[in-house]
Amino acid sequence: MNVNVYDFDNTLYDGETLVDFILYYVRRDIKIWKYIPKLIVIAFKDAFHLFSIEEAIEAYASFLEGYYVKKTDGFAKAVVDFWNKNEKKIKPWYNDVRKESDIVVSGTTDFILEEIMKRMNIKNYVGSSIDKDTGKFTRLCFLENKVKIFNELYPDCHIENFYTDSMNDKAMMDIADHVYLVKKNKITKIK
Q1: What are the DSSP E strand ranges found in the chain?
Q2: Closest among 142, 146, 87, 140 to 116, alpha carbons compared
Q3: What is this structure's pTM?
């Protein structure tokens, strides 16, 4: 089956979800403040594509293991409130091209993605996953791992059109028939 596949951050969503969520959460829990310097470094490296998969896992690990595990119960309500405030950042152009068969493949964690995917009525999506008990990644949907995960979860799908904001997704671009680069609300066909 031919499908359209979308990255999420800076493609369908105007921003970096994890950064926005942390900024949202910083105002609600001062215990996260001790992680801010490390999170700023992570955000910088992520924005400028200075990570390998292994480095990204290690960089996020101390935050996730030290903070996330202790807060999972409170995160569910926070995620709903976060999307109540940030759903408006979903880019309007998507409504013009959306199809029921669309698939979102994102590095964003699935516990944050789940709520907005329900609101957008997107049934097929995959993100990074975190073990709630340990805070360790069970799946990192990043760089070439996106292709591996996509092929494992959607083996009968062929990417007709792929939308992204970043050359970080080169591996996904390589398996798509057509590629569209998204900058804000401007969409440019590059393949």
Answers
A1: 2-6, 103-109, 124-130, 137-139, 158-164, 178-183, 186-189
A2: 87
A3: 0.85
